[in-house]
Amino acid sequence: MKNIKNKTAYILFPILIILIFITINRNKVYRTGESLWHDIFLKNREKPRIVYNYANYLVRNNEMKKGKEVIKNLKDNDYRKYLILSMITYRQKEFEKAAYFAKKSLEYKSNYDGYIMLGEYFFRINRIEELGRVIEKLKDFHYEETRYKVLKAKYYLVKGKAKLALNSLKGAVGEEALFYEGLSYQKLGELEKAKKIYLKVKTIPTAMVNYALIIYTEGEKEKAIKILEKINDSQSRDLLKKIKR
After folding, report:
1. pTM of the model
2. CB 86 within 8 A of CB 102
3. Structural contact between residues 122 and 134, judged by C-beta atoms closer than 8 angstroms
4. Third-level CATH fold of 81-161
5. DSSP assignment, residue 74?
6. End-to-end CA distance of the chain
7. pLDDT in the model for residue 13
8. pLDDT in tens, 174-211
């Protein structure tokens, strides 16, 4: 009986060690989003959607070089390859290239993300009529998520239609949506609402520049100066010069 127990233990012990090793390895994989995506990618290189999602994840986390390497697994006629290149070049502030790649993706397939990227480009270079046409194209997708809502708000604000901009932001989330909500209220003259929203925006310096401008016009010059000196970018320095004159 004792021998049977010893043999059983002898057999089970290596199995237990293997199971522990597998568990530890799996925990390492799940430790970060990047390692999880990498693990999925390694097992599914031939699946374009997986490749695109992994590259998208990398680019959104500022891993541009890795993103470029990953999309080498996509065929040259796959529209998703050019979407990633558009995202990378846009983040690198190469806006002409970003627009080129967005258009290239649209040549291969009419797609939501391609129009979003193209719309952002047209907004940046102030080609507002073309932006309007892009927004019309986006309506066909019947997919109203935050990027589309923010893009509409930008269009309406440039057109001087702050109420429509505000309405378009309903249900939108994130810092950029908050910023344009604050800007819409500012354009409408509802300054208290604008100030409250600007104070919630932490990653867009222009929000606090606008906040400083509002409180300056309300007579709080010294407070406005302190805020602008703390920001210390080109926009805040320009406003600071005007205030100190």
Report:
1. 0.79
2. yes
3. yes
4. 1.25.40
5. S
6. 98
7. 53
8. 999 999 999 999 999 999 999 999 999 999 999 999 99
Q: Which residue has the tokens 């923010």?
A: 150
Is residue 40 very low, low, confident or very high in pLDDT (cuts 50, 70, 90)? Answer: confident
Round to whole Å and give the CA distance between 238 and 5: 83
In this structure, what token pair is assigned to residue 87?
Answer: 């995202």
Within the chain, where are the H helices?
Answer: 2-29, 33-43, 48-60, 64-70, 79-91, 95-108, 112-124, 128-139, 146-158, 162-168, 175-187, 191-198, 205-217, 221-231, 234-244
Q: Which two tokens stand for residue 157?
A: 């604000």
What distance in Å separates the CA atoms of residue 211 and residue 239, rounded to the nearest whole number? Answer: 12
Residues, the chain, total? 245
CA angle, 123 then 234 then 85, to 5°: 40
**Chain region(s) in the chain for CATH 1.25.40:** 81-161
Instruction: Give the pLDDT score at 134.
Output: 96
